[in-house]
Amino acid sequence: MQTEMKAFLRRHGLLAGFGLFLISVALSADAFLTPGNIFDVLRQVSITGVMAVGVTFVVITGRLDLSVGSLLTLLTVIVVDQHNTSGPAMAILITLAAGIGVGMFNGVLVGLVGLNALIVTLAMLSFLQGLVLFYSGGSNVNVQNAQTTWFAVFGRHDLFGVPVPALIFLVTAVIAAFVLNRTIFGRQVFAVGGNETASRFSGIASRWTVFWAYALSGLTTAIAAVIMGSRVMGAQNTIGQGYELTVLAGVILGGTSLLGGSGSIWRTVLGITMLGFIQNGLLLLGFPYYVQWLVTWAVIILAVWIDLGAKRGRILA
Amino acid sequence: MSATNSITKAGGHSSVTRLLMRNHIWVFLALTIVVFSTASPYFLTINNLGNVLTQAAFIGILAIGMTLVMIDGEIDLSVGAILALASALAIGLQDHIGIWPAVFVGFLSGAALGFLNGTLVALSGMHSFIVTLGGLIGIRGLVFIYTGEDALMVGDFSYTEYPEIYLGPISLTAMIFIALALFFQWILSSTRHGRETYAIGDNIDAAHDAGINIKRHKIINFTLCGALAAIAGILLSMRLGTAEPNAGKVWELWTIIAVVLGGTRLQGGYGSMWMTIGGVLTLAVLRNGLRLLNTPNYVELMVMGTVLVLALLIDKLLSRQEA
């Protein structure tokens, strides 16, 4: 009985803790577990969520992508600016292409050339921020016909009563989970992250696997930028600043190991959604917004430590 | 015969070439100084070089701590937030407990948070990237809880005059940076703690088998890193006379860039304060030179990114040649 309990907590401890949190906040704030509020939270987490889905691939290969925050800024500026000059459809196409392009560039440097992922994507963070200022000339951009454009669908509208961005998040996650678990590429991602040398000896072109993982990360960031642009109907030059950290926090909270080789899309979705509900719950309880950062710190440390301790069989290293 | 050949080939570089290859950042720094000197008449003046040194000091002091942690094979993302907290405490507590006690509390907060980071890494076995990423987010929360979103101002402006001591063109802040770098280079190269830090970063299992107390050294280095970040924060608060809750944001990234630019490896076991000083100065010279040339802000950001990738490429090529 006790071992069953332990096994359950090991597998679903995160979920159980999250459930406790939801119940305790719901007891003290009536507005918390209402459909309206839940949908608001889902709408909020959809941007970081979609990004985190792509970043999960990169992390499972044992790499990092710190450039997604700056990339989100750049792509949001691009999608809004192009919306005004080339129209919504063209703007979305250009944004997706640009996102995949930057992702591939990361992929060339990290995957094909074999440079350190942390530093390359850090350099890209700086470079892309510069590119944003170059592209926008330092000024904010706004969608000119915000009230009439069908571009509003992605960030502002509901479908069957569910916010469209939440649906985009869901669909992205389902497709990504399929790719990760049911395709050869997905297997290769796990293999490269688990043991790169072994994967190479078994005939996997590990460099290209890493390359495509970064391309995916660029693609999901582009999708997130479309949602962001549509929701805000404009873009400041710092709109995505710090998003790379929230995204990573969500991926880590979901239990994807930074060493690579393990992780899942569903756990990332759970991690990101949890962060969203924690943030929302604390605000509803009347705390200032920065208290959530303190709680996030504690939650990350506890969740990862417990996860690690459970795998190891004892709490201390 | 071929073996002898390859040996002579590897040893074929003169010791000077090898020294330059190992310290390529200083070659690059010399080049940037030459380029900016010819491009701008204001660059190679005693005054400006003194300024560069002062501007470099803040990231520089952070980078000293980061180097210690990185040689151990770890990373500390929380230094920017610790800097902000120390500077907020040093200014905010002054009116209540006096200037020097407030400064001391600020310093202690950094050391304590560094100790917490190190202890969490050592006890849990979590990757320091995760532990300090949490710290980066959470400590910034602490700063905001303390300051309540508003910048704190000093009541007594004599506080801002403490670092206004100059030795020729060199400010006290710059002197503190250089002194700390020299001191920690001595620690690294001449003490047991220093040698064992390298050993841990180079091969943690071998270090463990050799009887080195890995946890203790890691905790010490994280504590030093936090304490150094606090010193940088206190010096910043003296320079500005205010403590802004967002101070030091993304400085951890600039710090990592400076250290890696210097040649210290993220994988651990390799690096020195000399390299870090070189990296810090190169970064500062690039920023200063580009600003003197009136280049827009975006050029600076793009140049930094490009230089960093180039540094990685050069490092990869050189280490392949040495091997």
Provide an overview of this structure:
The complex is a heterodimer of chains A (317) and B (323). Chain A is 75% helix and 3% strand. Chain A is built from 13 helices and four strands. In chain A, a hairpin with a 2-residue loop joins strand 2 and strand 3. Chain A is globular, with a radius of gyration of 20 Å. The mean pLDDT of chain A is 91. Chain B has one domain. Chain B has helices spanning 2-10, 15-22, 24-39, 46-71, 79-92, 94-97, 99-124, 128-147, 172-190, 192-202, 204-209, 214-240, 251-262, 273-292, 297-322; strands spanning 152-153, 166-167, 170-171, 242-243. A two-stranded antiparallel sheet of chain B has the order 1-4. In chain B, helix 14 (273-292) packs antiparallel against helix 15. At the A-B interface, helix 5, helix 11 and helix 13 of A face helix 7, helix 8, helix 13 and helix 15 of B.
The termini of chain A sit apart by 27 Å
Helix/strand/pairing class of chain A, anyone? Answer: mainly alpha
Give me the side-by-side strand order of the main sheet of chain A: 1-4
Indicate the overall shape of chain A. globular
Radius of gyration of chain B: 21 Å
What's a concise summary of this model?
The complex is a heterodimer of chains A (317) and B (323). With 317 residues, chain A is an all-alpha fold.
Features:
heterodimer, A: 317 residues, mainly alpha, two-stranded antiparallel ribbon, 13 helices, 4 strands, globular, B: 323 residues, two-stranded antiparallel sheet, 15 helices, 2% strand, disordered N terminus
Task: Summarize the helices and strands and which ones pair or pack.
The complex is a heterodimer of chains A (317) and B (323).
Chain A (H helix, E strand, L loop, with lengths): L1 H27 L6 H26 L7 H19 L1 H25 L4 H20 L4 E2 L10 H4 L1 E2 L2 E2 H19 L1 H11 L1 H6 L4 H27 L1 E2 L7 H11 L11 H20 L6 H22 L5
Antiparallel strand pairs in A: 1-4, 2-3
Chain B lengths: L1 H9 L4 H8 L1 H16 L6 H26 L7 H14 L1 H4 L1 H26 L3 H20 L4 E2 L12 E2 L2 E2 H19 L1 H11 L1 H6 L4 H27 L1 E2 L7 H12 L10 H20 L4 H26 L1
Antiparallel strand pairs in B: 1-4, 2-3
Helix pairs in contact in B: 2-3, 3-14, 4-9, 4-12, 4-13, 4-14, 5-7, 5-8, 5-12, 7-8, 7-12, 9-10, 10-12, 13-14, 14-15
